[in-house]
Structure prediction request, 261 residues.
Amino acid sequence: MESASPRPQKRTHPLRAFQTTLGIAILLATLFTALPSRGLVSGDFYQRLSMILTPQSADGAPLASRPQLRIGIVAGHLGNDAGAVCYDGNGEVTLTEADVNLKIAALVEQQLKQAGFQVDLLNEFDTRLNGYRALAIVSIHNDSCEYINDQATGFKVAAALNTNDLNRANRLTACLVDRYQRATNLTFHAGSITSDMREYHAFREIDPSTVAAIIETGFLNLDREILTKNTDQVAEGIVQGILCFSNNENVEPTPMPGLNP
Prediction:
């Protein structure tokens, strides 16, 4: 076995060492310039230095210290039944509400996660709904496949009939109505909101502090094209409504049956 020959020692190139020293000097000079001189005198230099080096959010808070808000998204009928079922002229099933709901809900989940939220995608009768606590929960549904009349197009939004926090419930529904209508240009049908929506089962199961709403994003007959071919647009409307609520953005109050005197 041959003995290993000694490795030659690395030699630092004088020019490279000079460039490194110059780079550090420029960085320190920049930091000192960015900090008011009184910061050095008052002894808060390291605090100011830390603020410069720590990534900041739009509101000035360090990104690492911002709490991750939880949002619940229920894909209507998922894990329970098909919901509304659409047939072709031969009696074959062409579309189910549950499939459309899930496609929309999955996109909403994805977009909210990208926005920094913690998101739970829930089944219709998910055991996690019992005592569920979050900033908000939104259940996604759709209306009938049958042709009713030419006015059977558009969406509905409702909150719990017996909500514990009327102001926040009104704000969530108003945000969803306003932002969803902007994103889709669909008509809001406040007058056709049913008691089944206002007394939705999940409203009774979740923690009373969780603000909740249910949205029927359209009719599977006249609105089928936007619901199935522009699903990202539909999901964006819901996401923008949740962001409006979460960020306390400006929105005009929307009268909701059962919530306003």
Q: What stands out?
A: The radius of gyration is 27 Å. The beta strands are 70-75, 85-87, 93-96, 118-122, 136-143, 156-159, 211-219. The CA atoms of residues 144 and 219 lie 6 Å apart.
